[in-house]
Amino acid sequence: MPLFEYKCRECGKPFDELVNHADDPVSCPFCKSTNAEKQLSVFAASVGGSSSASATPCGQPSCGSGFA
After folding, report:
1. By the 8 A CB rule, do 16 and 31 touch?
2. What are the residue boundaries of the Putative regulatory protein FmdB zinc ribbon domain, all occurrences included (predicted)?
3. Count of CB atoms situated within 10 Å of the CB of 19
4. How far apart are CA 11 and CA 54, in angstroms?
5. Where are the domains of the chain?
6. First CA to last CA across the chain, in angstroms?
7. What is the pLDDT at residue 53?
């Protein structure tokens, strides 16, 4: 089951939820409202990221790849 990030539109608190299908209804664990908005997770936002040297932690194109 995939893990999705949500933000409750009633109380404003963020939460994570394991769901079978992306469009399954979820309830806020804090206020029990079913009025939640799916959030774009940091992981999903960075999957198609840049391959430039500045995107690596050490500033080198081969940083951490095992190749010199």
Report:
1. no
2. 1-41
3. 15
4. 39
5. 3-43
6. 38
7. 46
